[in-house]
Amino acid sequence: MDGDIFSSIGSTAQVDGKVLQTFQKSFGQVQHILDQNRLLINEINQNHESKIPDNLSRNVGLIRELNNNIRRVVDLYADLSSSVTKSVDVSSEADSGGSFKSNGKASQKRIRSGFH
């Protein structure tokens, strides 16, 4: 019985470590993209204020790059959300001891409190 408790704690710590690494990596990437966006926005604003035709036409490409960066940030947050959801599911299975069916697969039953 004690072995079950310690293996559960070990797997939870492993999951937490992976989640922390995922957070750090994702937030680092997001911060880098947001820093790039700040520079792009500054350049777009300067080009717009200059009213020089070449600068204004350059803004088209800069705005496309800005939009792509925003899409990348959204994707990173979506991936992060998915990772957290998976790790919470794994962690809660580890905490509950994980119930297994006769075929060896983990049961996916969830109890929802407050819903009848």
UniProtKB/TrEMBL annotation:
Signal peptide: none annotated. One of its GO terms (biological process) is entrainment of circadian clock. Residues 88-116 are annotated as: Disordered. The keyword Ligase does not apply. Residues 14-95 form the Protein EARLY FLOWERING domain. It comes from the Eukaryota. This is Protein EARLY FLOWERING 4 domain-containing protein. It is found in: Nucleus. Its main location: nucleus. The lineage of its organism: Eukaryota, Viridiplantae, Streptophyta, Embryophyta, Tracheophyta. Residues 107-116 have a biased composition (Basic residues). Keywords: Biological rhythms, Nucleus. It comes from Quercus lobata (Valley oak). InterPro entries: EARLY_FLOWERING_4, EARLY_FLOWERING_4_dom. GO terms for cellular component: nucleus. Belongs to the EARLY FLOWERING 4 family. The keyword Nucleus applies.
